Amino acid sequence: MRVLVVDPDPARAALVAEGLAGVEPLEVRHAPTFDEREAARFGPDVIVVASDSPDRDTIESLREATAANPRPVVMFVDRSEPGLAEQAVLAGVSAYVVDGLSAARVRSVLEVAMSRFQLMNGLRQDLEKAKADLASRKTVERAKALLMKERGLDEDAAYKLLRKLSMDTGRPLGAVAADLLAFAGVLKGGGQ
Amino acid sequence: MTRLRLGFIALNDAASMIVAQTKGFFAAEGLDVELVREVSWATMRDKMSVGALDGAHMLAPAALAITLGASGGEPTPLAAPFALNLNGPAITLSSRLAGALGAGTSAEGLARLIAWRRTEGASPLTLAVVFPFSTHNYLLRDWLARAGVDPDRDVRMTVAPPSRMTELLVGGVVEGFSVTEPWDSAAEAAGAGMIAARGAQLWPRTPDKVFTVTEAWAEANPQALQALLRALLQAAAWTDADENRDELAALLAAPEHVGADAEVIGRSLSGMIFHEGGANRPEPVHAAWLAAQMMRWGHIPADVDIPALARRVYRPDLFATAAASLDLAEAPALESLKGYSTAGEFRLADARRHAQQGPLSRIVGG
């Protein structure tokens, strides 16, 4: 298991390492601040971040930007924030939050977070795929037709253009096609 | 006394909240406020969602995104009954990059440099903002796009904490950024960067931070909310007064507030507006402009009803009640933004049409 602990205080990394003793192979790396390049090289299975780390925004934006390769993030909340952890978990807020960590609980917390992340990620992908399969074929066909008409492209070129837009913006083909149709509607005076 | 917990981030534009606390404006309205300094917008969002904070210093686009649920988690409808400031953000480039661009660090010069780097096969420049849903992200994107640079394709956009921007410039991790003062002036003072553009040069009287509560809290606590708004209004007037600027700079410089050099803060406050000209009235047209930028870059779905969203989150009605109870003259509502776009003027109803200037419009706009 490869764990990256982002926390100004090295104590938490030591605690995580202690709690994971016996897990093979194991590498716990502590970083006082988050460095994207180093993190990418390390390739952690899970990132542990203190809730009072200013790097939370960076780590969160990274998870969104690299939807193809997401990592579970476990966030530790200080004891001085009573209730936040439980409430945040109930509300399904962005990260997995744990209050008052002890070495004995580290392993189960990380394992639960990782398996729940994989489960949620799997569900999300299945759902997205099912939704996309249903909706996007029609949408993509219509967007293609629009491009063929507006730009005088053949079908193949229209499809390639859509795919390039999808890659440039990092968004699914169906979403790009849907936006294209919506914007075309606005341009034709269909919007406000 | 009503007990309240309010969150803020270490930036100049939290000034009115800090002043309301330290100069006794909250207490005078019968409020016992605990000001909590947060270090990330994600944590601020989460704490607002779960009710761990009653109110928060907030990026205006984040307030819109959180209401829609676009920023992760379940949608949490927020109300913004108070605008904390105008003219906070700036765009700063590393001294290295500014040197390479020569005189007048213009976006056009940067566009030429980026084009040249591409032909040379160099890696794209990395630019940082403070949060995906921030005025800074949209300001920087607009600045780049006006010069023909596609922010999603021609540069690499990343997120970093404001207080660390100088260090990231020096380390070559980023080559430029957009944040709210004092962190642009701080990078200049350290010799690491150069301010290439102030927000106001692109978007006159740039909207920036708002004070937010959840819609549910606003409905459940109308009296506490009015007391908060009265305290903030009086604090904002104090904050904006020229004769208080030295004291303000010293107050913000304290480590528990912004924690930067008082002289740098003093300089960086010069263009910022905290009160005058009706600056505290949350203008739905500002929210609509920002939402149009969010749609333009595909950060919110293309079918969002922008005027409805703007009117739901920005609440000049709640603000007007507080202003009237202080016998302040009612500022006329802002109907349009002048000088914001190449079209010259922006109105609430133009939002969708503006959103079309995104990457997709290059394909279908013709």
Secondary-structure map:
The complex is a heterodimer of chains A (192) and B (366).
Chain A: E1 2-6, H1 10-19, E2 27-31, H2 36-42, E3 46-50, H3 56-65, E4 73-77, H4 84-90, E5 96-99, H5 103-151, H6 155-169, H7 173-187
Helix pairs in contact in A: 1-5, 5-6, 5-7, 6-7
Chain B: E1 2-8, H1 15-22, H2 25-28, E2 31-37, H3 41-50, E3 55-59, H4 60-68, E4 78-83, E5 89-94, H5 95-101, H6 107-119, E6 126-129, H7 135-146, E7 156-159, H8 165-170, E8 176-180, H9 183-189, E9 193-198, H10 199-202, E10 209-214, H11 215-220, H12 222-240, H13 245-253, H14 262-268, H15 284-296, H16 306-313, H17 316-325, E11 336-338, E12 345-347, H18 351-355, H19 361-364
Parallel strand pairs in B: 1-2, 1-3, 6-7, 6-8
Antiparallel strand pairs in B: 3-10, 4-10, 5-8, 5-9, 11-12
Helix pairs in contact in B: 1-12, 9-14, 12-17, 13-14, 15-16
Describe this structure in words.
The complex is a heterodimer of chains A (192) and B (366). With 192 residues, chain A is α/β, with parallel strands linked by helices. Chain A folds into two domains: 2-101, 3-Layer(aba) Sandwich (Rossmann fold), CATH 3.40.50; 127-187, Arc Repressor Mutant, subunit A (Orthogonal Bundle), CATH 1.10.10.10. Chain A has seven helices and five strands, in the order E-H-E-H-E-H-E-H-E-H-H-H. Chain A has helices at 10-19, 36-42, 56-65, 84-90, 103-151, 155-169, 173-187, and strands spanning 2-6, 27-31, 46-50, 73-77, 96-99. In chain A, helix 1 (10-19) crosses helix 5, helix 5 packs across helix 7 (173-187) and helix 6 (155-169) crosses helix 7 (173-187). Chain A starts with a strand and ends in a 5-residue tail after the last helix. The model of chain A has no long low-confidence stretch (mean pLDDT 76). With 366 residues, chain B is α/β, with parallel strands linked by helices. Chain B has two domains: 2-86 and 207-355, D-Maltodextrin-Binding Protein, domain 2; 89-202, Periplasmic binding protein-like II (D-Maltodextrin-Binding Protein, domain 2), CATH 3.40.190. In chain B, the strands form three sheets. A five-stranded mixed beta sheet of chain B has the order 2-1-3-10-4, sandwiched between helices. Chain B has a five-stranded mixed beta sheet with strand order 7-6-8-5-9, sandwiched between helices. The longest helix of chain B is centred in the middle third of the chain and has 19 residues, at 222-240. Chains A and B meet through helix 3, helix 4, helix 5, helix 6 and helix 7 of A and helix 3, helix 18 and helix 19 of B.
